[in-house]
Design a protein that fits this description.
There is one protein chain. 35% of the residues lie in helices and 27% in strands. It has one domain (2-220): 3-Layer(aba) Sandwich (Rossmann fold). Helix 3 (99-109) runs parallel beside helix 5 (143-155) and helix 5 (143-155) runs parallel beside helix 6 (173-189). The model has no long low-confidence stretch (mean pLDDT 93). Strands 6-7-8-3-9-10 form a six-stranded mixed sheet. It has 223 residues and is α/β, with parallel strands linked by helices. The protein has helices spanning 43-50, 73-83, 99-109, 115-127, 143-155, 173-189, 201-204, and strands spanning 2-11, 17-27, 32-36, 58-63, 66-67, 84-88, 161-165, 193-198, 209-214, 217-220.
Length: 223
């Protein structure tokens, strides 16, 4: 589902900064893989490259059988909208929409409305234990609850791939443990493929397999 081959990325400037070098790995269909690494090693950049939000300087990214290199901006946007769900550290829950409308947003962007879309939204809210909070506003939720909204939103359109960028970074340990367990449960029940990047080894332990990102590329994870 995800194949990264010899990926490299350098940010230009008076002092060019190379953040990724010779990164190669594969994620199989239905697999939940965690990539651990220290802050600044390029974990978020790696997810952005896999999502087609940035372009690599070297190497290739193949997502759901599609090489991203020849795609234009519109095609990459369509791929993200249809096939990828995102969970971010800072939630990115829209403050002016109710919980229900936040979760339903990917369906609306894909032109899915009506009874079936409403039922799918309710099912995901139920899956993340927020069925009774659909009419609440984000300001009324805790951090852990907002991250659960983000998980429901990431999965509501049944994406093939879920990308999670430090999803427990802003949470207390108890909330973080609950959120990562729920993320795994929802990903598996939706038959999605997931790639989690995190500096937390506790969060990474929920994955089927753990890799380590270093300045020299991907290396075997050493507990």
């Amino acid at each position: 589902m995800i194949s990264v081959t010899r990926l490299g990325k350098t940010f230009p400037g008076p002092r060019p900064r190379r953040v990724l070098h010779d990164v190669s790995f594969d994620v199989a269909r239905g697999e939940f893989v965690a990539i651990v690494g220290e802050s600044g090693v390029g974990k978020s950049t790696l997810l952005n490259l896999i999502a087609g939000l940035e372009q690599p300087d070297e190497g290739t990214v193949v997502v759901n059988g599609q090489d991203l290199a020849p795609l234009d901006d519109n095609a990459r946007t369509a791929l993200r909208r249809e096939h990828i769900g995102f969970v971010f550290q800072s939630f990115h829950v829209l403050p002016y929409l109710t919980v229900r409308r936040n979760v339903a947003l990917p369906l609306a962007l894909n032109g899915r409305h009506g009874t079936a879309a409403d039922a799918r939204t309710h099912a995901l809210l139920d899956a993340v234990r927020l069925a009774d909070r659909g009419d609440s506003m984000p300001r009324e939720l805790s951090g852990g609850e907002m991250q659960r909204v983000a998980i429901a939103r990431a999965l509501v359109h049944a994406p093939a791939i879920v990308l999670a960028d430090e999803p427990t970074g802003n949470l207390d340990p108890d909330s973080a443990a609950q959120v990562i367990a729920l993320l795994r449960e929802c990903v598996k029940s939706n038959a999605a493929t997931a790639l989690l990047v995190t500096h937390s080894r506790t969060a990474a332990a929920a994955a089927d397999r753990i890799l380590a990102l270093t300045p020299s590329g991907i290396v075997p994870f050493a507990p």
